[in-house]
Amino acid sequence: MRRRLVTVLLAVIAAILAVPAMAVADDQSGENLNGQIRIPETVEGIDITVFQGDEEIGAVTTGSDGSWEVELPGPGDYRVVLDQESVPDEFVVDESPGAEIEVSVRPGQQRTVIFRLAPPGQEEAEASPSESADSGGGADAEADGGGEEGVTTAPGVSAGTPFGTKVVQLAVAGLIFGLIIAISAIGLSLIFGTTKMINFAHGDLVTFGAVMAMLFSTGAGGFGNSLLVLLVAGLLAAGAGSLLSGRAPRPVPAVVAAVIALVGVAASTVVGIQGEALDWEVPLAGAALVAVLMGAAFGAGLERYVWRPLRNRNVALIQMFIVSIGISLMLRHILLVAFGGTRQRYDEFQLQEMWRLGPIAITPRDLSIVGLSVLVLVLVACMLQFTRIGKAMRAVADNRDLAESSGIDVNRVTLYVWSLGGGLSALGGVFYGLNQTVYWQMGFHLLLLMFAAVTLGGLGTAYGAMVGGLVIGLVAQLSTLWFPSQLMNAWALAIMIVVLLVRPQGILGRRERVG
Amino acid sequence: MDFLYILATAIETAIGPIAAVYALAAIGLNLHFGYTGLLNFGQVGFMLVGGYGVAVSVSTFGLPLWAGVLASIGCAVLLALLLGIPTLRLRADYLSICTIAVAEVARLVYRAEFARDVTGGVYGLQGFASAFYDANPFPRGDYGIGDISFSARDLWMMIAAWGLVLVASVVMWLLIHSPWGRVIKGIREDEEAVRSLGKNVFAYKMQSLVLGGVFGALAGALIAVNQQTITPDQFMPQVTFYLWAMLLLGGAGRTLGPVLGAVVMWFLLTVFDETLRSLAATGVLPFLQGSDVGALRHAMVGLALLLLIVFRPQGIIGNRKEMLVNVK
């Protein structure tokens, strides 16, 4: 009962918070009522009718993202009724606020109405405080319709801030954003360099990293353990297979690998069924490390078990692009099904005091993102510049045939490139999730910016991706000085198209015939 | 589980207006990829400008519906020119990156706050195609055989949409069997060879991009008319990937490939959807919730793309040799 009370209170507070925000956001256009059925998940096809007195004003059905909207003839009191027949069987309408809500609409107001669904029989218990806080915040963020595209502008920037401060703050935000893009895009560029393939699934590797870090930092009972066991089993199977191949007669390595993999699947099922009994969680830093390792293994697995066989079958490059699109669709939607469609934040490092360093105000969280990103970029650059494998990577990226004929094991280098790319994009995902929010489409939105970054910097060069990422991040954030923030990604992509017009090889690309 | 119901629903979808819309857009994509070898990952951008061409002309500027359709064709031509001039001279992979980016930029611009007076922003526009439905010659009621039935409205829409698909297919057949078509296919096989014969490859590619884009725009206009409502978020990049899956399933480089692909694909998707939904409703799959079905469907399309490319790149009726195009 206490929980229930807290829920109601929080919902009321959220509604109070949401309403003024709405009024400020849209006071030009006409009145309407809107909302989104998204707790516990988005539900399509629910009928909602609006009455004034006994007269029906309008009826709508929620769209694929659970959102609905009814235009109103004018201000006044309205009754919003949710048709309980249209609710899917797995849900019932929560008793608070119920299926019928009375609202009064002020002139020019676009009012958000919150309906809550709950699994049957759990209406009271399941609505935990955090969830309802999320629902309030979510309604607020979705209310102006601009929330979807994700990237928020720099903190501390509002209409009244002097121009100079705004420039500095946006430049800092752009730097952070650019570093994140750069880290994620290095792999994309190197993969293009070594295999001439554009990896359309790279954005979803970013999401994968962010989601994995979320999983392991918020308690990895059941599902997380299963994934880990599967990963270890896969690594063991691959390792045993490659160790035995050439030393044992032909069928032995494959059989051993298959047996290990099967045992792994069985073990992961057992661990999954054990569920919360084996619950454990690590701080976000540890979770990030796990996520990076898993990202690297995932990238390597893709190369070893998808791309290398395809290359051996002489599948043409265009066909490979389409396969990568297929993989990205699968990965993205499996992540959506497994982890839900709501935006989440990591528990740690959230509410922080701004530090003032001269004219710059920055949270310690963002400062450490900058520091760590720069460190990682420098390490990657050193690796590429001074180590044997790094030199081999650059050689293969430069000219695959020449590298192969001078004795470099191209397949092995490609495998390392993929695991490097997977790990770095997972790290980029953790940083991006820390800086913004974690949700299933974050990587896809970042992918287009990564494309812009690698084309800008020069396809196939690692340093180009770093430079291009920084430029794209800065352009995106600084464009909000003059243009609406919804269009910041559009400006970054526009820059890419302009660059293609004047310098198709990119900033650092070597001049060659590209058409 | 009601198999008859599932089957009837699947057939209704497979021959319904939505399948026709996708077939039309896939015909445009077939011209781009199947015949010219252009990697267009932004066909949904053409559909977006096409749909909004109708909606904005009628709702915002009060023009008649036919003028709206002309406007949407004009928008598609403009978009194709904008897209083609910087990228068609470059390698195919640049075009693929740019098309996906431009389609997304277009969506962002149409849903932006400042465009709300014209495009309705995130909420889109409604009720602009009454002229089309007023011309419906069929009296009210349901038409059909057995469990498969359509309302008079749907029937009228289907006749218009499939009629357009037929016209587009005939146009494509005539074009491809003309000298122009031979040059286009030559570009797909070997651009340098065609160039050395003195053909202006850039101009031909541009014509192909424009024409395929116009088919896409007409499909977008049909979407708008069919639903009587349009929002920018209907035009997510996934739509393009659906089109690719349909094209590859039917067979790229064949006149009837995209049409067949759209029909078969919608049939299979609906069967998949409805089966999962009824399984979820009966509670056989406890981990599955009703709202996950849509997401799983997208994942299935991804898997279909992957398997098709690996095991049958020519699709149902394609010619394997024609599908060995590569990036030069």
UniProtKB/TrEMBL annotation, chain B:
Q: For this UniProt entry, which segments traverse the membrane?
A: 6-31, 38-59, 65-85, 155-176, 206-225, 241-269, 295-311
Q: Which Pfam families match?
A: BPD_transp_2
Q: Name one GO molecular function term.
A: branched-chain amino acid transmembrane transporter activity
| Cellular compartment(s) | Cell membrane
* Topology in the lipid bilayer: Multi-pass membrane protein
Principal location: membrane
Question: Which GO CC annotations does the UniProt entry carry?
Answer: plasma membrane
Q: Which InterPro entries match?
A: ABC_transp_permease, LivM-like
Keyword set, alphabetical order: Cell membrane, Membrane, Transmembrane, Transmembrane helix
**Among its keywords, does the record have Cell membrane?**
yes
The record's section on PANTHER family has:
HIGH-AFFINITY BRANCHED-CHAIN AMINO ACID TRANSPORT PROTEIN BRAE, HIGH-AFFINITY BRANCHED-CHAIN AMINO ACID TRANSPORT SYSTEM PERMEASE
Protein name (database record): Branched-chain amino acid ABC transporter permease
Q: Which organism is it from?
A: Marinitenerispora sediminis
